[in-house]
Write a structure and sequence with these properties.
Blueprint lengths: L44 E12 L9 E5 L5 E6 H10 L1 E8 L2 E7 L4 E5 L15 E4 L8 E6 L6 H9 L2 E6 L8 E8 L5 H4 L5 E9 L2
Parallel strand pairs: 1-10, 7-9
Antiparallel strand pairs: 1-11, 2-3, 4-5, 5-6, 7-10, 8-9, 8-11
Length: about 220
């Protein structure tokens, strides 16, 4: 599935993680478990929402050709799958096959258009992204806003939709492509197979969802 207008997530916080640009963030821990949303949302539900997902590419699922890259300071950081690099430039972060200088992740600085090593994927304010919890929205949304998806709209796998509806989403990221105030980009964690965008039911783009904002 192709979405050429994919949003720029975490652009405000990327430079803070650059190698040589200051203190590194703490080591990436195990993914946080998604808390359950309350049964009765405190905000009124509205229809007509556009739901998409973003994820963290994993280098082991992407093959040659390889391309050498350097970080924002010009330091070489090895050769990596060109397909993997292309995906990181869309999604913001990707996980290496082998850690480099203790960093498991590669990040793309959208503002300065350069690579950096990272301990973990982050959103606005260097908040760690949490799979099936973090959501990105237009900058008009306050970070920390709770979201409940009541209905997924069309073209979403039934099992995946149940997980989307059962999750307690929180706005923890902003996206440059979310010009529609009724557009949410849901973080689903690391890809778990080759050709993730084509083969995983967790990768979807749907319209007509019903969403409640919890404040």
């Amino acid at each position: 599935m192709s979405r050429p207008d994919r949003w720029i997530c975490a652009a405000l916080s990327l430079c803070a993680l650059c190698v040589g640009c200051g203190a590194q963030t703490p080591s990436h821990g195990a993914p946080a478990s998604a808390p359950r949303a309350s049964a009765t949302p405190s905000g009124g539900a509205s229809s007509g929402w556009h739901l998409t997902v973003y994820y963290t590419p994993v280098e082991s699922y992407h093959g040659p050709p390889l391309r050498p890259i350097a970080d924002c300071s010009g330091l070489a950081i090895g050769k990596h799958s060109l397909d993997f690099l292309d995906r990181v430039q869309v999604e913001g972060f990707g996980r290496f096959v082998t850690s480099i200088d203790g960093s498991r992740y590669l990040g793309w600085d959208f503002d300065h258009r350069c690579w950096f090593l990272a301990r973990r994927p982050v959103g606005v304010g260097d908040r760690p992204l949490r799979e099936w919890v973090s959501a990105a929205a237009a900058s008009s949304f306050a970070t920390g806003t709770g979201v409940r998806v009541m209905s997924c709209g069309s073209n979403v796998n039934e099992i995946v939709c149940a997980r989307v509806r059962g999750a307690a989403w929180v706005i923890e990221d902003h996206c440059g492509g979310c010009s529609d105030p009724k557009h949410l980009d849901l973080y689903v964690g690391e890809e778990d197979r080759p050709d993730f965008e084509e083969l995983s039911p967790s990768y979807f783009d749907t319209h007509g969802a019903v969403v409640a904002l919890l404040g």
